[in-house]
């Protein structure tokens, strides 16, 4: 009998302890520094495609192009600072990675936010009772068995894929014994949600700013946002409502432009053709104006700097020439499928081959939190399930478990013993595709190549 009654008597800790630690809204503010914040450079953040939900439309930071009156990469004159001086920041100067943190606004609930992403653990949430969703735990009947003819056909198709395998073995072999077996493939997929906050900025060229005067910003887990599809990796970047403010650009110090690195702010470079002389010798021996620099903006012997269009300054890339940036707290929501698996295979078929073929789905279950299975006829699978389910309950303590799915597949594996030219040998046929695996195929050409 394949079926065994399942009881819910196991003493299972579903990681409830982890929630006790974070069960107060106030405590979620004491966020943990994310260990691996891969895209933390704020400059890069704005390059990412930002998806916004309808709910957030109104909070979108105004893009600098929205003004329509100013050219995006114009050649506006450099702005002056509070003392009326033009701020000269060289393009070659080390680029500050972000504005100074002490200039950022104080936002209630976001006190520890920096320019690096910080993971915010979810507040305690009530998990659905696991048994409420668990359906039928019956095991499906056994897989179909391969016949001698199936085995021979499978071996022949394997031979056809290898240029140096001879067909004779597959045609002439005498099958002496067939052993039927099954491999089991257990998989657990945990779909988790992680929320991280960081300061971010974008060029500011005018438009509405959704600042703290519009109301108290919602806490990271109070912002409603859902994944597009369950069990699919996805990242959404959301500006936290009411956290925006306008600051002077840290790169150009508010000037909007930088000194051109090519001409060092002069707007011209020495003409290479006449070496700065302004004259060139004609064939007849008379001097005439150098063809290359005679109409230059900055006089003879000088060529206009192409990089800055002879202006000596280039637009600041950080603020897009506006001199101002809009700073806001960005919420990064990452949904991820975390998978773990275990394979039981008692013949000598490599595990990767077991994973690569289809089989019978013997058991499939989805719930907010699944219970380990204990009813599968193979005890190793039950043990693996217990271990993996518990490991996942511990592994994502700073994330929210949205949904879990566990599957057991039965993959038919047949061992075929045969005799060819007075020698005994063995090969395997596995999966619903009847794929063959013959590691010691006796009729390979001398080069031993196994190119497909
Ligand atoms: Zn230049
Ligand atoms: Zn010249
Ligand atoms: Zn700037």
UniProtKB/TrEMBL annotation:
Transmembrane segments: none annotated. Residues 23-45, 57-84 are annotated as: Disordered. InterPro entries: Multihaem_cyt_sf, SSUH2_homolog. PANTHER family: PROTEIN SSUH2 HOMOLOG. This is Protein SSUH2 homolog. It comes from Cloeon dipterum.
């Amino acid at each position: 009998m394949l079926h065994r009654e399942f009881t819910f008597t196991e003493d299972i800790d579903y990681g409830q302890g982890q929630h006790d630690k974070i069960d107060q809204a106030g405590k979620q503010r004491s966020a943990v520094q994310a260990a691996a914040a891969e895209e933390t450079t704020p400059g890069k953040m704005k390059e990412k495609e930002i998806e916004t939900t309808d709910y957030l439309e109104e909070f979108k930071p105004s893009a600098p192009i929205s003004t329509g009156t100013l050219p995006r990469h114009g050649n506006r004159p450099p702005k002056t600072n509070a003392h009326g001086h033009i701020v000269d920041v060289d393009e070659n100067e080390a680029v500050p990675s972000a504005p100074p943190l002490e200039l950022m606004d104080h936002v209630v609930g976001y006190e520890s936010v920096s320019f690096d992403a910080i993971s915010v653990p979810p507040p305690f949430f009530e998990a659905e009772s696991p048994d409420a969703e668990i359906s039928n735990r019956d095991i499906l009947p056994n897989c179909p068995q391969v016949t001698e003819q199936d085995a021979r056909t499978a071996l022949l198709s394997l031979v056809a894929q290898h240029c140096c395998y001879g067909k004779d073995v597959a045609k002439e072999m005498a099958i002496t014994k067939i052993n039927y077996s099954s491999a089991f493939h257990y998989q657990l997929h945990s779909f988790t949600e992680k929320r991280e906050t960081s300061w971010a900025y974008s060029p500011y060229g005018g438009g509405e700013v959704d600042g703290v005067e519009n109301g108290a910003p919602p806490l990271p887990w109070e912002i409603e946002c859902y994944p597009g599809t369950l069990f699919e990796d996805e990242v959404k970047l959301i500006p936290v409502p009411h956290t925006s403010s306008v600051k002077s650009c840290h790169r150009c110090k508010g000037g909007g432009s930088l000194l051109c690195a090519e001409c060092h702010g002069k707007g011209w470079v020495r003409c290479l053709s006449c070496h700065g002389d302004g004259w060139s010798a004609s064939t007849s021996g008379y001097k005439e104006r150098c063809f290359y620099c005679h109409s230059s903006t900055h006089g003879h012997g000088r060529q206009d700097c192409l990089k800055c269009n002879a202006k000596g300054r280039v637009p600041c890339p950080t603020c897009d020439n506006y001199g101002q940036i809009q700073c806001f707290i960005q919420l990064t929501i990452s949904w991820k499928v975390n998978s773990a698996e275990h394979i039981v295979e008692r013949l000598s078929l490599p595990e990767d081959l077991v994973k690569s073929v289809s089989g019978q789905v013997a058991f499939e279950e989805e719930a907010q939190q699944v219970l380990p299975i204990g009813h599968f006829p193979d005890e190793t699978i039950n043990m693996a399930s217990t271990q993996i389910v518990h490991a996942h309950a511990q592994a994502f303590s700073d994330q929210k478990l949205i949904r879990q799915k566990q599957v057991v597949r039965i993959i038919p594996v047949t061992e075929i013993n045969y005799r060819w030219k007075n020698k005994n040998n063995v090969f395997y046929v596995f999966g619903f595709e009847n794929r063959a695996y013959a590691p010691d195929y006796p009729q390979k050409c001398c080069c031993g190549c196994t190119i497909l």
